Amino acid sequence: MMHLNKTHLIHNDQQAIVALCTPRGSGAIALIRISGQNALTVASSLARLSSLQQLSAASTHTIHHGFVIDPQTEEQIDEVLFLVMKAPRTFTGEDTVEITSHNNPFIIERIIDLAVQAGARAARPGEFTKRAFQHGKMDLIQAEALNDMIHAQTELALKQSQAQMHGTLSNALTGIELQLVAVLGYVEATFEFLDEEQRDLDFAAAIAKRINAIHTGIIALKQHFALQKQVKQGVRVALVGSVNAGKSTLFNALVGQERAIVTDIPGTTRDSIEASVYKQGAFWLFIDTAGIRQTDDVVEKKGIERSFSAVQEADVVLLVVDAARVMTTQETEVYDQLLTLAGDKALVVFNKIDAASSLSKTTLFQPKNYPLFNVSAKKNDGLAVLQTAVEERVQALFAQAKSPYLLNQRQFKLLTEIQFDLEAIAKTFVDGVHYELLAYHVKELLEKVSELTGKNVTEQMLDMVFGEFCVGK
């Protein structure tokens, strides 16, 4: 007679999944999570409790001391704690067992292997959170906010992602959804009352008013999207300029440590050098780019290209000028191009003022409409003023990003589509109201709002969203 493994009868989306939920590396303890329909059975097969109780019979939300054993050999793998949590009061909404073991990679892998042998499977990236979403523990916006919170590089990003986990953006989208439902109600009401000679309500005006209100709300939601990169990832400060202008010396002075090689040989820094500093609740990434000069050297050309790329990607640009010499016409042209590209992100820094001659001062590159700073990075002169100016620029960036919402690219794209659709609908009121067509378009908009929150979303989209999560979350 053929015996069936009960695990094979469990749907793949209900089968227990297992993963390490704490970072790999040195540390005292590790946490391994098992979640799914057969999680208690899996955990019980490799658990031996000090109380001699069966883990599967334990009460929910209780902690038990015991050992992980190999069921085949009775070998004791590790002394651990088992946290038993039964559905639905768990993160995933499923039965869950969390095992706290010693943080040794061999122990961790052995426990996970035993769990897999007992009927679990290795969790995919973000699968615990995906199951929480599927069981109604959070919507898609809150799930994405959870991932943002884990990877937040600034205090502001952390606060905004925590606020979104509590529903700030979800509530705003619910408001838009309710407004669209109200519009649909007015549109469908016209089918019954449109031919009546006497009506107390001007349907077209009421619909137009509500569509304009929704449109205004979406623009407000999108307003701070361009600034979210600084909020999420921190601030990028790029140093660009000619070879031997003292960028590396200035870079080291700003970073506060010897990260860049400083020599008197032009072109020493042929690639970008980066250093991260934590300041004022955010990570600041300082980038010392390759020196700019006209050359046929292929490596040098790539460095110059990286300088232009760094300007595009930077939030603050320090254009470093060698005050001890007069620039060539070619250099001046390149500097002008960089300033044009940087725009209001640029601060012009005249370095080596301690070695500047009277001739170079009178014929020096003189950009207009940009803040100018005289420094000697070598002697630490003028740096305090420059640092204050950079900090003020950064604070201005964060001040503009005080919105409680932290939009990602997916959310921004869908909101933009909804905005364009609303603008197309508004145009129909100019050309003449076609209520049947309007009802169709409003229903399409409601589907897009549902896609934002995850009420109506494809499996492919879910895989894309949760694929950005780490394994174990």
Structural description of this entry:
The strands form 2 sheets. A 7-stranded mixed β-sheet has the order 3-4-5-6-2-1-7, with helices on one face. The protein has a 6-stranded mixed β-sheet with strand order 9-10-8-11-12-13, sandwiched between helices. The protein is of the alpha/beta class. β9 (273-279) and β10 (282-288) form a beta hairpin. The protein folds into 3 domains: 6-123, Probable tRNA modification gtpase trme, domain 1 (Gyrase A, domain 2), CATH 3.30.1360.120; 177-219 and 411-466, Up-down Bundle (Four Helix Bundle (Hemerythrin (Met), subunit A)); 230-399, 3-Layer(aba) Sandwich (Rossmann fold), CATH 3.40.50.300. The protein has helices at residues 39-45, 105-117, 127-134, 140-150, 155-165, 168-193, 203-222, 228-233, 247-255, 298-313, 329-342, 358-362, 383-399, 409-431, 435-453, 459-466; strands at 17-20, 29-35, 47-49, 62-69, 76-85, 96-102, 121-122, 235-241, 273-279, 282-288, 316-322, 346-351, 372-374. α6 (168-193) runs antiparallel to α7, α6 runs antiparallel to α15 and α7 (203-222) runs antiparallel to α14 (409-431).
Please indicate the count of domains: 3
Topology-level CATH name of the largest domain? Rossmann fold
User: What share of the residues does DSSP label as strand, in percent?
Assistant: 15-25%
Which stretches are low in confidence, meaning pLDDT under 50 for 5 or more residues running? 1-9, 359-363
Q: How many H/I helical runs? A: 16
- Tell me the Rg in angstroms: 30 Å
Q: Could you give a short account of the major beta sheet?
A: 7 strands, mixed
Task: Give me the secondary-structure category.
Answer: alpha/beta
Strand adjacency order, main sheet? 3-4-5-6-2-1-7
- Give helix and strand order, one letter per element, not per position: EEHEEEEHEHHHHHHEHEEHEHEHEHHHH
The named CATH superfamily of the largest domain: P-loop containing nucleotide triphosphate hydrolases
* Average pLDDT figure: 80
Distance between the termini: 41 Å
Kindly state the number of beta strands.
13
Q: Tell me the helix content.
A: 40-55%
CA-based shape = flat
